[in-house]
Amino acid sequence: MTVQETPQATPNGTPDAASYPAFHPTHGVRNPGTALELDWVRGAQVNRSAVERRVATLPGRRTVKNVHQAAWLLKAVSCIDLTTLAGDDTPGRVRRLCAKARRPVREDLLEALGMTGLTVGAVCVYPTMVPHAVRALSGSGVPVASVATGFPAGLTPMPQRLEEIRYAVAEGAAEIDIVVTRAFVLTGDWEALYDEVRTFREACGEAHLKAILATGELGTLRNVYKASLVAMMAGADFIKTSTGKEAENATPEVSLVMVRAIRDYLERTGYEVGFKPAGGIRTAKEALLWLSLTKEELGRAWLEPGRFRFGASSLLGDIERQLEHFVTGRYSAAYRHPLA
Ligand SMILES: O=C[C@H](O)COP(=O)(O)O
């Protein structure tokens, strides 16, 4: 690795996408994981100032306006894992969230934008809420994602963590967001981290596994990069920044390091892994920044729900307000967009 210098920019300011194929020969093939390549993991370096310089260039490099911005925001909606992960979640709240997931943007706005059939990427809930979400989303094509494995800290015994995965899958969750044991990363026990994620992946079966790294608790960007590699080697379908419960959640810096790890893994193994920034992403402007970062680093092909998700409980409301402004020229109060 790795995150040492910025990629070559072409004269029109877009990244040199030639080296990142839009569709790799293994496109669409689920990442099966690889053997644990310890030399690769241990030898990885991350230059923090290079990361910060690269991130600082992002807002100015790609500003999308007007109809293009509306199109990007619709894309962002389609990639949201609409989330509720609160201690006071109820079946009723989950049902309301699912209704929003089916129709995330007001019909009149979609009509004005010439868009039909828009849904979010998934609905993400705690395991006991899975059956309610599955019922409420029946026939919609919107998958249910469940957090599991002792979310958010992951410090429950392994049999219980595995049982949580099996329970959520049996109840109909198609995606499982697991949390890793941060101590394995902090002590450099890469074998233990690999075995843990591998075991979770086996318990998931056909359900896709998103590995939450909880980057705000990993200490260094180098640890974030190494943990990303190990999770992918262990068969993660997505790597995800945060639970939303850490003191520091998704940041552009950790996101850059993670998408570079995804790119390096793709180049080395040929397998595509998705990226899910999560936690604290609340505004349309932030969503555009993350889409832009991902597009610049991984190419247009990554801006699809199969390879990119926002984990967010309160992003949709601001996106809908911005779309309303684009269509009508007016902003409505945030309370007019409940649950989003
Ligand atoms: O996985 C998703 C996160 O828990 C959502 O975090 P948030 O509530 O800060 O948007």
Automatic annotation (TrEMBL):
One of its GO terms (cellular component) is cytoplasm. The keyword Cytoplasm applies. Keywords: Cytoplasm, Lyase, Schiff base. It comes from the Bacteria. It is found in: Cytoplasmic granule. It catalyses: 2-deoxy-D-ribose 5-phosphate = D-glyceraldehyde 3-phosphate + acetaldehyde. Pathway: Carbohydrate degradation; 2-deoxy-D-ribose 1-phosphate degradation; D-glyceraldehyde 3-phosphate and acetaldehyde from 2-deoxy-alpha-D-ribose 1-phosphate: step 2/2. Residues 1-13 have a biased composition (Polar residues). One of its GO terms (molecular function) is deoxyribose-phosphate aldolase activity. Its EC number is 4.1.2.4. Residues 1-28 are annotated as: Disordered. GO terms for biological process: carbohydrate catabolic process; deoxyribonucleotide catabolic process. Pfam families: DeoC. CDD domains: DeoC. Signal peptide: none annotated. PANTHER family: DEOXYRIBOSE-PHOSPHATE ALDOLASE. Belongs to the DeoC/FbaB aldolase family. DeoC type 2 subfamily. This is Deoxyribose-phosphate aldolase. The lineage of its organism: Bacteria, Thermotogati, Deinococcota, Deinococci, Trueperales.
